[in-house]
Amino acid sequence: MLKKGITQKFEVGMILARQHRPNGKGRDNMSNKNNLKHKVYVIQPSYRSMDGKLLKRLPLFNFSYNLPILSAVIPSDWEKQFCLEYCDKLDLKSDASVVILTSTGYEVAHAIEIAEHFRSQGCTVIFGAHMDEMSDRLLRKSCDSVFLGYPNHKQMSEILEDATSGKLRPEYDCGMNVDYPFDYSVLKGKGMWFIPMLASIGCKNSCSYCCYTAVSAGHYRLRHISNVMEDVRAAATFRRPLGFLDANLYNNRNYLLMLLEQMIEEKLNLRWGCNFTIDIADDEEVLSQLTRAGCRVMFIGLESLDSKNMLQLNKPYDPARYLNQIRKIRKHGIMVGTYFIMGLDNDDTFSFDDVYKFYQESRVEVPYTHMFVPIPGTPLYNTIRSAGRLHTEAYDNYSTDNAAAFSVPCSVAYFQPAKMTEEELEQNYLNLNARVLTLPKILRRSLKKHFIDTSLVLGMNLEARKKYKAMQAAKLQKLNDKALHTKFHPSSLLT
Predict the structure, then answer these.
(1) What is the pLDDT along the chain (495 residues), one digit of tens a residue?
(2) Distance between CA atoms of 461 and 438, rounded to whole angstroms?
(3) For residue 399, how many other CB atoms are within 10 A of its CB?
(4) Kindly report the CA angle at 299 between 211 and 406, in degrees rounded to 5?
(5) What kind of fold does domain 197-479 have according to CATH?
(6) Which of 190, 194, 206, 300 has its CB 3.0 to 4.6 Å from that of 243, i.e. a possible disulfide?
(7) Extents of the domains making up the chain
(8) C-alpha distance from residue 48 to each of 1, 106, 136 (Å)
């Protein structure tokens, strides 16, 4: 699984951290801390692709509203510094006394490197606003404190005051406090494809594979529409499409209709997209209002074409209706992106052909396919682990040495599939991507009447193709390394 020389690739890493420690070990003394300002440095790290390179362009799945949210609650008497590392250079010599790391989950290994560096500089390092158990478990070891959820103004003031007075607690449970206007000034000049928005936290469903289930357990919280609209107006100044990153913007039908009515009334002339569940296709009134409000693309987690798999996922939708439902959505002039998960318990080697045929027949603009990765803290992870089908060493011994293998989407089976071998799952997954992500097919999907629509669909498909190519190269490297090891390993002389 691991690539040769992977430990040599970290630009920041543990070596850099040790260079700032007295005598090469231990944490720096407190004299450094006395020279630091009443200043907080908020960082969303980048992550490493499967070839080990640090990504310096913001991928679709790593757009995050965390920086605007956290900036809005930092007290005015604190100087603020921000780094979205996909776009910005990390300031390793920042004079901030407190560093806050926030992650969407993919960046955890590199976040550990950054935390180690700033702790060696005498900074207090805090991690928060994350959704997954794995990030929490790993980063606790490298940070001084963790806050769960999103702090409000009072809670953030308390955390920062405790950090400077030596009273910092190991953990702060803040809840999901996001009902206030966000600070979008922190995203100026980032060259983002779209501006991330948020109307709600959580999801009405309790899918067995999803990290939201572990956090919200089928519940959700709605922001006041006045706060959402203030954010929409601020984001509109970027002259970019907007992307609502809610787990499901269709959590509450009446709320969605009120939000859409407000957007229509203000005539902001926006183009935007969002995540929905497929049942929205049966709601003609909402689809019509979405079109009037400027929605041009929706992303839907279909997950599987097999009804037994949907039961395994605890997702209450009928795959037999998918094609007709997608046609209803596209009839309203809204493009569709879909997500499928391969490797579920009723998947076999024929399932990949079924998904390919579905893509061809449905003509979805953005066909995303992922291999199933059990997420710690979810019911499905617990089920697979208790059945002895999980490769626990990949999770329990997770470190910066094997972190690149967890690039998302990844092409490594970290569990034993039910109806095929791990090798069959990995190879068929790559073969499906090869068939779906050819340049001619991408170009056909991307040709739209509006230039912005064309550029977005083209960009998202090319990004998926680039990741597939990286996964393919990693797979070939793995096979080459295995062949080389077999050829020269002493045991090969006995055969």
Answers:
(1) 333 333 333 333 333 333 333 333 334 444 455 555 689 999 998 877 666 677 777 666 666 789 999 999 999 999 999 999 888 899 999 999 999 999 766 677 788 889 999 999 999 999 988 766 666 677 778 899 999 889 999 999 999 999 999 999 999 988 888 999 999 999 988 878 889 999 998 889 889 988 776 666 778 899 999 999 999 999 999 988 999 999 999 999 999 999 999 999 999 889 999 999 999 999 999 999 999 999 999 999 999 999 999 999 999 999 999 999 999 999 999 999 999 999 999 999 999 999 999 999 999 999 999 999 888 888 999 999 999 999 876 666 554 444 444 444 467 888 999 999 999 999 999 999 999 999 999 999 999 888 888 988 998 999 889 888 878 887 777 666 655 554 444 444 343
(2) 10
(3) 10
(4) 45
(5) pyruvate-formate lyase- activating enzyme (3.80.30)
(6) 194
(7) 6-176, 197-479
(8) 15, 9, 19
Cβ proximity of 53 and 47 under 8 Å: no
Indicate yes or no: pTM above 0.70: yes
End-to-end CA distance of the chain: 24
Which token pair is 483?
């062949």
